[in-house]
Design brief:
With 209 residues, this protein is mainly beta. It has two domains: 5-94, Ribosomal Protein L25, Chain P; 101-179, Ribosomal protein L25, C-terminal domain (RNA Polymerase Alpha Subunit, Chain A, domain 2, Beta Complex), CATH 2.170.120. Helices cover 12% and strands 41% of the residues. The protein contains three helices and 13 strands. The chain has helices at residues 17-25, 47-57, 203-208; strands at 5-10, 28-35, 38-46, 60-65, 68-80, 85-93, 100-109, 120-123, 127-132, 141-144, 153-155, 166-167, 174-179. The strands form three sheets. Strands 1-3-2-6-5-4 form a six-stranded mixed barrel. It has a four-stranded mixed β-sheet with strand order 10-7-9-12, with no helix packed on it.
Length: 209
């Protein structure tokens, strides 16, 4: 896990929608820090800094509130569907050395052997739940598909992960597969449709009635 720390500033609770919108326009995203047995703390984080930290660390990293650093899991990112901007972020408090379950993104790497024969790779799982201590949870799970031929698959049980981690998904769950090329179906020529002149009414005729 990378060591980038995200600066966060405490936010005055119960701000109006107008005040929050003003902060968003200035690149400040409302967030909240919370956890088991912890009072929630409303925050602002800089959008550019958050994106940089998230790209470097994945979902788990440290945030700095005042003079204190807190280890967190980026539990929820809410998006504005119209503007396609981040609207709000939930940071869940973690404890070093204490196991937690996190959804980790799956990334396929390599070109499958079956692709050279016209097949195509299908990714069946975009994320997988992994349990481990925060320092051992990876930013992503890389799955090498280069040896897959047409009809071959990779299952959860095939993944090479650290012995310090536990996969929560069933071992038989398919992560990626290579499917054969689809055969183009020959379409039969359409027969011309005869229109019954007595049942066809033009717009002009209708208005005339």
């Amino acid at each position: 896990m990378a060591t980038t720390v995200l600066e966060a500033k405490k936010r005055v609770p119960n701000l109006s929608r107008g005040e929050l919108m003003k902060e968003r326009k200035n690149g400040k995203i409302p967030a909240v820090f919370f956890g088991q047995g912890i009072d929630s703390v409303p925050l602002f984080v800089d959008l550019t800094d958050f994106n940089r930290t998230f790209d470097a660390n994945g979902k788990i990293f440290e945030i700095k509130i005042g003079n204190q650093k807190k280890l967190v899991n980026t539990k929820t990112i809410q998006w504005d569907p119209q503007r396609k901007h981040i609207w709000h972020i939930d940071f869940y408090a973690l404890k070093k050395g204490v196991e937690t379950t996190v959804k980790v993104p799956v990334t396929l790497v390599g070109e499958a052997a079956g692709q050279k024969e016209g097949g195509s790779v299908q990714q069946r799982q975009d994320v997988l739940e992994v349990t481990g201590t925060p320092m051992n949870i990876p930013e992503e799970i890389k799955v090498d598909v280069s040896k897959l031929g047409i009809g071959d698959s990779i299952h959860v049980s095939d993944l090479n992960i650290s012995s310090d981690l536990t996969m929560e998904a069933d071992g038989e769950l398919t992560v990626a597969t290579v499917v054969p090329p689809q055969k183009a179906e020959e379409s039969e020529p359409e027969e011309p449709v005869a229109l019954n002149a007595e049942t066809v009414t033009t717009e002009t005729e209708t208005k005339a009635e």
